[in-house]
């Protein structure tokens, strides 16, 4: 049972409603609303029946709107009693009616809060309260206002806010990427700010692409600066959001929209979110995505920005900010198609290829097929070239259903083309053809050439950007060098710690007597070290700039030439070397806790030191002659001091890093002794020399140690820096050649070999726990060693002063080596660690052994986590000469920790971690090992539980090949189990499935089997004929290669007789038997067989015999009679022959005809044997006109084609001579004047005749065209006139005879109307109609007249006379009291003329007077106004039914009746059939429509009055 908690509304002052009505202190119960974001407080525990607390059914929607627009919020609330709604805002009041208006619409129950002409100061979080006596509901909504332009009134407001320290509001919300219009003029080579914004939001795999795009080549500098900017940005972001993750750059979706996504949690839900494009703020909506172009939706923690209706101008740089801090940046680019995909025509079972070239590199295009997105899989291959400009889509194994439109989309650009799949007509019916190995399609152009040209354009643009940046940097460096003044020789003071720190000596190095020789060292990167060597001839010795805790120092020279040290970056150090002649020695400035000091000079010229930063220390050494001794800057509380010299020459000490130490060695003759910087508690010391030669020690890293060996002849002994408890020492040589030891990494070791003749001994660069050092040469040639990734490189020394370089990168060390070809004295002296400790993983319960190897026999002590260790308690500590071992007999969790071995001043350490190899539960392992059996097309699933562990890697394998997630493979990794899903399994997916669990302690595997069941494969062929007789055929085959995963149960045999289409099942045989005897055969007939293999999953595909098998021996028919040529033409030769006299007792199926062209020896069959000609005559149509052929015929029976007949006589393919004749000509043609006349006459004649055209037996005019083609002649008159009417005669004549044909051509036009019409009555009941002839009567002898009559009773026009060639007509049955009208039309072959209208014939016009013979009569008047005898009735017919509507009207004279629908006259509407018969007025509708409904009204009018009636018509559905 849940306990209810009573709460008090915690609305702050100024946020809630008025205090009088809304005190905000009522005690209530929290309730949950169905609408998210609504807070409900119920004042009483149990509500009365029928009552309810307030709630929102529609809450206000957040709004981002431009300044000056109309802003409003809408809400709908419920509750009984009806709640009161009040609006408020967090920062300010809403009492000003000019700015805030609350409205309520009772019809829609909507509460509206309006802000006309919204201003920026109204941007705030608003609250809506709904309250009744039982509770209160509250919801918040955010209004964002986008400012437009600059307001003069802002200045006083901003000053006031500054005075109140409200700087946040004073700052205008702007993107760090300014708009293009406001962008200042960019300096030559300056990097676009977009570069850094993109890098901070991009994946590491995209860094190289972005750098190449913006022309940045210095990756180490970029990474260093990027890390600094990321730290600053993360600190800013932490003030507003947390858990920022899953940044997905902008991309085009399948629905045509573009979107980008990111996830974060807002610390303050009311924080404002802003969107920018190219530095300009853009408006967006949160929920009304269909109303605005831009939309920002929130789904859980995910924020999705989307853009619809994409246009080219939408390309740009998009940013999302929370308040004033950028969260995400992405670049939206538009690419175009240089070569578009083309239409592809492919045969069935062939692959189709669509390919295109785009204008800019793109890793992926969106491909669509028939409006569906396509992905890489079994059906489609999506290929992309290395330069990402050429994209291909391969539609594999095309079928007819694959035809359609395919499209490639790159942003808003797209191109599409048809795929047409043609059926393989050559494939046998009922069989599935094999898949073709060919490909159809392609663009038809050299895509590689187009892509190379485009790549050249892109490379050129990229190189131009690089050159600009390079030039700008060089110019800046030169300017900085020119401005730097010369300084006096002193040592630079540290900013945070200025006191000199004495360098404690940790290790001791033996000193050997040598002569002074110099060497150079290359730049050290990433905790590497580089120092400049000294040279006898005064040539240049440089040290490259150290990056990321690297060190560089300038070498010394005798002749006073310059020795420079590159600037050290990120805790790097650079110091200037010393010179005897007083010339300048410079040291580059140390950055980020680095320090640089200037060297000393004998002549008192200045020696400069770069400034030291961040608590570094440097002190100058002491010299007897008063010259300067400098110490390099100390970094991170490191120490560096200069060594002492007797002659006052320079002694330098490299900078100490991270509590490391470095000290310079001592020299008796005043030559140079340097010590490399110590890193991470490492040690480095310079060796001592009696003759003043150079002894260097590389920097020690991670508790590693490096010492220089001793030499008797004065040659150089170098030791590389020790990394990760590794150790390296230089070997000894007798002849003075160089012996170097590379830096030790991860306990690995590599050194350069020694040579007696002074030739080069090199060691390759050390990568990932490898080491490389440079050898030496006597002739002064170059010896290089390049160490990468914690490797080491040292430069060899030369006698002639030429350069020897060593370049160390990534926690490596480079030092100048020394060499002379005097005999070498082996190094002895102080102990050193040759093989140190490293981190190991030990298995719980198993023994573990740690070994330290020294170069001498000396004692040592073991420590664990700072506590000393002794033998006992499962631990054994042993010593065998110079080998120290610590053995743990059975590892436990308590044995994990940091182990350290100390011998005197030497130490090495490594961490031991105790754990277990992953394990499977026995029950789970047994369950997993059971095979998974599925059918083809089904999904196969594997699941393996395991115990959750850290650093556990789960991998799935099939037949030894690792499976990756994607395509038909789905891999799910959960903390306590992993699942593998194989979709739509094929038979080929059968095999071993293995899961592997791997952690640092080991790996464990479990195997299972996947068995995919399918129909068996077809039996193996070919089908062999074991026996064939007149009554038996026996065949044999082999079992199928693939039984489908289950054994074959039996074989099914079917047979088809040649010439028949029906296959008949003969029976089946068991799986052990692979032969069959067919005893039901007919001698001489041929049969085909097919065999199926069957297993529980179904039938296989069939194995069919290649050729038909004949029962018994072959019996061929005798030859038919000699073919005879019946007739010939240029396209066909007709043959006939007689059947063979001897058919050998076997029925003849048909015949095969062959032809041979004259002067050739090859006979060509006109029909195949399996398509015999059943008749004894044949029309050969495959002939060439004018060629001569002979033919022969063979009879075909069940055994095949027999002997051929004798050849026929030679026949020529040409038409026989014949008299011209015309084929189905037309003898009359009517054409409208002005149109062209075309008279086409087809004919047959051999030889071709001579054609002549005549007009009325006269030659035709020259403007009349005659076009003659084979078998047809055409007469063309371009623009005809009436005068072109005539009889045209075509005359065809050849050597055989001639023929004539006449065609009457009449050129006419629509006739003009007749003249005035007159009416006259001479006899009662008859009227004579006469008219003036039409003007075209004389021009057209085919013109006639048509008379139409109309009377007032029927009110319809009807034709009473047609084809009148006279100009008079007598109308009969003319009744008194009825008005008559007549129309006369002229008509010819083109149609009717306009009518000539007669005068009205009525009761009082042209009447023949009737005599009364003197008898008078009394006059009686029958005239009366109209009246309605029977009114209209109401009708409700269904839609589509017919309708009759009638009424009765009387009046004298006869009234004129009109029908109206909704006050619109419908008498002339063709949808209504209206009649008036003796006063009965009717209206008929054939099919009632919806718009026929309404009010119908009948109006009767005569000279005495008017009457009307009405009704309503309702149409039912």
Description:
With 1517 residues, the chain is mostly beta strands. Helix content is 6%, strand content 37%. The chain contains seven helices and 101 strands. The strands form 24 sheets. Strands 1, 2, 3, 5, 7, 10 and 11 form a seven-stranded mixed sheet that branches. β65 and β66 form a beta hairpin. It is extended and about 160 Å long. The N terminus is likely disordered.
Keywords:
single chain; 1517 residues; mainly beta; six-stranded antiparallel sheet; 7 helices; 101 strands
Low-confidence stretches: 1-26, 150-173, 486-828
Give the overall shape, derived from the CA principal axes: extended
Number of helices: 7
| Rg on CA atoms, Å | 55 Å
Mean pLDDT: 73
- Helix fraction, binned, reads under 10%
- Give the N-to-C terminal Cα separation: 60 Å
% residues in beta strands: 35-45%
Annotate the secondary structure layout:
Layout: E1 6-8, E2 27-32, E3 39-42, E4 52-58, E5 63-66, E6 71-80, E7 84-89, E8 101-105, E9 110-115, E10 124-132, E11 135-146, H1 154-163, H2 167-170, H3 193-201, H4 207-214, H5 219-237, E12 241-252, E13 258-266, E14 273-277, E15 280-281, E16 294-299, E17 302-307, E18 316-322, E19 325-332, E20 337-339, E21 344-347, E22 351-358, E23 366-369, E24 372-374, E25 380-384, E26 390-395, E27 404-410, E28 413-422, E29 439-441, H6 447-483, E30 529-531, E31 551-553, E32 573-575, E33 639-641, E34 661-663, E35 683-685, E36 705-707, E37 717-719, E38 727-729, E39 739-741, E40 785-787, E41 806-808, E42 813-814, E43 833-835, E44 840-843, E45 848-854, E46 861-864, E47 867-868, E48 875-880, E49 883-888, E50 897-903, E51 906-915, H7 922-929, E52 932-935, E53 940-945, E54 953-958, E55 961-962, E56 969-973, E57 977-982, E58 991-999, E59 1002-1013, E60 1020-1028, E61 1033-1038, E62 1050-1057, E63 1064-1070, E64 1075-1078, E65 1086-1095, E66 1098-1099, E67 1103-1104, E68 1109-1110, E69 1124-1128, E70 1133-1136, E71 1150-1157, E72 1164-1165, E73 1177-1180, ...
């Amino acid at each position: 049972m849940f306990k209810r908690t009573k709460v008090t509304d915690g609305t702050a002052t100024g946020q809630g409603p008025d205090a009088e009505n809304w005190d905000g202190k009522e005690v209530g119960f929290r309730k949950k609303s169905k609408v998210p974001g609504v807070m409900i407080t119920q004042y009483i525990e149990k509500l009365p029946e029928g009552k309810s607390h307030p709630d929102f059914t529609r809450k206000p929607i957040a709004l981002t709107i431009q300044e000056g627009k109309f802003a409003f919020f809408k809400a709908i609330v419920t509750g009984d009693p009806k709640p009161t709604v009040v609006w408020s805002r967090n920062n300010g009041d809403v009492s000003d009616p000019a700015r805030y208006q609350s409205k309520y619409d009772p019809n829609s129950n909507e509460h509206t809060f309006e802000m006309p002409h919204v201003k920026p100061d109204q941007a705030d979080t608003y609250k809506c309260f709904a309250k009744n006596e039982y509770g209160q509901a509250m919801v918040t909504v955010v209004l964002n206002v986008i400012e437009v332009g600059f307001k003069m009134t802002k200045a006083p407001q901003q000053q006031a806010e500054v005075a109140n320290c409200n700087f946040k509001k004073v700052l205008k919300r702007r993107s760090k990427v300014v708009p293009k219009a406001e962008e200042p003029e960019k300096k030559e080579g300056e990097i676009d700010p977009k570069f850094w914004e993109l890098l901070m939001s991009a994946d590491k795999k995209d860094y190289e692409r972005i750098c190449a795009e913006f022309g940045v080549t210095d990756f180490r500098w970029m990474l260093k600066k990027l890390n600094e900017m990321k730290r600053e940005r993360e600190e800013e972001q932490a003030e507003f959001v947390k858990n920022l993750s899953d940044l997905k750059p902008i991309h085009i979706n399948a629905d045509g929209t573009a979107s980008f996504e990111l996830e974060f949690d807002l610390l303050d839900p009311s924080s404002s979110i802003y969107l920018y494009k190219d530095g300009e703020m853009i408006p967006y909506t949160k929920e009304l995505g269909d109303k605005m172009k831009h939309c920002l939706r929130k789904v859980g923690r995910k924020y999705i920005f989307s853009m619809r209706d994409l246009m080219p101008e939408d390309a740009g740089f998009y940013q999302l900010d929370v308040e004033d801090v950028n969260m995400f940046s992405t670049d939206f680019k538009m690419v175009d198609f240089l070569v578009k995909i083309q239409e592809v025509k492919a045969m069935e079972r062939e692959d189709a290829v669509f390919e295109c070239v785009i204008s800019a590199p793109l890793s992926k295009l969106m491909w669509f097929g028939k409006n569906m997105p396509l992905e890489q899989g079994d059906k489609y291959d999506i290929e992309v070239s290395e330069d990402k400009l050429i994209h291909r889509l391969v539609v594999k194994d095309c079928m007819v259903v694959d035809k359609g439109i395919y499209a490639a989309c790159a942003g808003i650009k797209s191109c599409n083309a048809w795929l047409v799949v043609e059926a393989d007509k050559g494939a046998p019916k009922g069989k599935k053809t094999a898949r073709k190995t060919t490909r159809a399609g392609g663009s038809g152009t050299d895509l590689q050439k187009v892509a190379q040209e485009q790549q050249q354009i892109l490379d050129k643009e990229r190189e131009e950007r690089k050159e600009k940046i390079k030039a700008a940097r060089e110019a800046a460096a030169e300017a900085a060098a020119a401005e730097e003044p010369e300084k006096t020789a002193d040592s630079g003071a540290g900013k945070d710690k200025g006191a000199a720190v004495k360098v404690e000596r940790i290790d001791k190095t033996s000193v050997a007597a040598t002569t002074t020789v110099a060497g150079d060292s290359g730049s050290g990167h990433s905790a590497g070290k580089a120092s400049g060597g000294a040279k006898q001839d005064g040539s240049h010795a440089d040290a490259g700039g150290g990056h990321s805790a690297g060190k560089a120092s300038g070498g010394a020279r005798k002749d006073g030439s310059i020795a420079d040290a590159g600037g050290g970056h990120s805790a790097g150090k650079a110091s200037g070397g010393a010179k005897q002649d007083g010339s300048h020695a410079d040291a580059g400035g140390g950055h980020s806790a680095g320090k640089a000091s200037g060297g000393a000079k004998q002549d008192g010229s200045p020696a400069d030191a770069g400034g030291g930063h961040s608590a570094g220390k440097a002190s100058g050494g002491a010299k007897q002659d008063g010259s300067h001794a400098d110490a390099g800057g100390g970094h991170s509380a490191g120490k560096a001091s200069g060594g002492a010299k007797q002659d006052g020459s320079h002694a330098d000490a490299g900078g100490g890093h991270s509590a490391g130490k470095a000290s310079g060695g001592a020299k008796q003759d005043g030559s140079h002794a340097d010590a490399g910087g110590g890193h991470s508690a490492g040690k480095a010391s310079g060796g001592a020399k009696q003759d003043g030669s150079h002894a260097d020690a590389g920097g020690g890293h991670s508790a590693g140690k490096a010492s220089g060996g001793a030499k008797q002849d004065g040659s150089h002994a170098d030791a590389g820096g020790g990394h990760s408890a590794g150790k390296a020492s230089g070997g000894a040589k007798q002849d003075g050649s160089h012996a170097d030891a590379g830096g030790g990494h991860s306990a690995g070791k590599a050194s350069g070999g020694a040579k007696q003749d002074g030739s080069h001994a090199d060691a390759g660069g050390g990568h990932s726990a490898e080491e490389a050092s440079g050898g030496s040469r006597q002739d002064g040639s170059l010896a290089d060693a390049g160490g990468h990734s914690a490797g080491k490189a040292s430069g060899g020394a030369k006698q002639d002063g030429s350069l020897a370089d060593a370049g160390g990168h990534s926690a490596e060390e480079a030092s100048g080596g020394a060499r002379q070809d005097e005999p070498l004295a082996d190094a002895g002296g102080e102990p050193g660690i040759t093989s140190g400790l490293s981190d190991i993983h030990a298995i719980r319960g198993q023994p573990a052994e740690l070994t330290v190897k020294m170069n001498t026999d000396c004692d040592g002590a073991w420590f664990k986590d700072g506590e000393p260790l002794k033998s006992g308690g499962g631990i054994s500590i042993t010593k065998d000469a110079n080998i120290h071992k610590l053995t743990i007999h059975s590892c436990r969790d308590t044995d994990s920790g940091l182990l350290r071995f100390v011998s005197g001043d030497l130490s090495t350490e490594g961490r031991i971690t105790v754990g277990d190899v992953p394990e499977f539960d026995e029950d789970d392992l047994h369950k997993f090992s059971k095979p998974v059996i599925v059918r083809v097309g089904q999904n196969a699933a594997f699941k393996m539980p395991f115990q959750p562990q850290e650093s556990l890697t789960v991998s799935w394998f099939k037949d030894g090949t690792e499976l990756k997630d994607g395509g038909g493979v789905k891999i799910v990794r959960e903390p306590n189990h992993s699942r593998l899903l194989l979709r739509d399994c094929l038979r080929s997916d059968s095999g071993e499935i293995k899961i592997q669990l791997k952690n640092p302690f080991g790996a464990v595997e479990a195997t299972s089997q996947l068995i995919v069941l399918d129909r068996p494969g077809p039996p193996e062929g070919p089908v062999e004929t074991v026996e064939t007789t007149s009554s038996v055929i026996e065949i044999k085959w082999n079992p199928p290669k693939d039984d489908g995963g289950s054994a074959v149960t039996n074989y099914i045999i079917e047979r088809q007789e040649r010439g028949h289409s029906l296959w008949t099942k003969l029976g089946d045989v068991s799986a052990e038997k692979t032969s069959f005897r067919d005893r039901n055969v007919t001698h001489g007939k041929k049969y085909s067989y097919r065999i199926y293999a069957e297993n529980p999953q179904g039938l296989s595909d069939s194995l069919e015999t290649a050729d038909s098998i004949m029962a018994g021996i072959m019996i061929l028919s005798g030859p038919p009679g000699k073919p005879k040529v019946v007739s010939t033409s240029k396209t066909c030769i007709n043959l006939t022959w007689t059947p063979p006299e001897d058919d050998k007792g076997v029925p003849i199926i048909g015949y095969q005809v062959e032809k041979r062209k004259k002067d050739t020896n090859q006979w060509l069959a006109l029909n195949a044997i399996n398509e015999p000609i059943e008749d004894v005559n044949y029309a050969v149509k495959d002939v060439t006109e004018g060629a001569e052929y002979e033919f022969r015929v063979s009879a075909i029976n069940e055994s095949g084609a027999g002997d051929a007949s004798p050849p026929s006589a030679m026949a020529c393919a040409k038409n026989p001579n014949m008299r011209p004749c015309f084929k189905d000509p037309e003898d009359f043609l009517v054409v409208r004047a002005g149109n062209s006349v075309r008279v086409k006459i087809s004919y047959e004649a051999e030889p071709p005749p001579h054609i002549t055209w005549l007009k009325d037996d006269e030659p035709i005019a020259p403007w009349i065209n005659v076009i003659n083609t084979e078998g047809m002649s055409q007469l063309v008159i371009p623009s005809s006139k009436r005068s072109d009417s005539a009889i045209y005669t075509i005359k065809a004549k050849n050597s055989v005879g001639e023929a004539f044909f006449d065609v009457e051509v009449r050129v006419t036009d629509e006739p003009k109307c007749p003249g005035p019409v007159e009416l006259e009555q001479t006899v009662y009941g008859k009227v004579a109609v006469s008219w003036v002839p039409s003007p075209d009567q004389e021009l057209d002898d085919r013109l006639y007249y048509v008379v139409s009559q109309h009377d007032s009773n029927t009110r319809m026009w009807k034709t009473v006379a047609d084809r009148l060639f006279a100009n008079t007509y007598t109308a009969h049955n003319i009744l008194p009291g009825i008005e008559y009208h007549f129309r006369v039309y002229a008509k010819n072959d083109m149609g009717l003329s306009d009518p000539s209208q007669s005068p009205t014939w009525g009761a009082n016009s042209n009447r023949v007077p009737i005599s009364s013979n003197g008898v008078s009569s009394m006059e009686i008047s029958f005239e009366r106004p109209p009246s309605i005898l029977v009114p209209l009735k109401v009708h409700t017919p269904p839609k589509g039914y017919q309708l009759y509507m009638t009424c009765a009207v009387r009046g004298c004279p006869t009234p004129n009746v009109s029908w109206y629908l909704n006050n619109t006259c419908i008498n002339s509407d063709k949808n209504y059939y209206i009649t008036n018969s003796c006063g009965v007025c009717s209206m008929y509708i054939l099919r009632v429509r919806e718009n026929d409904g309404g009010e119908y009204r009948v109006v009767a009018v005569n000279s005495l009055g008017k009457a009307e009636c009405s009704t309503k018509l309702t149409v039912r559905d």
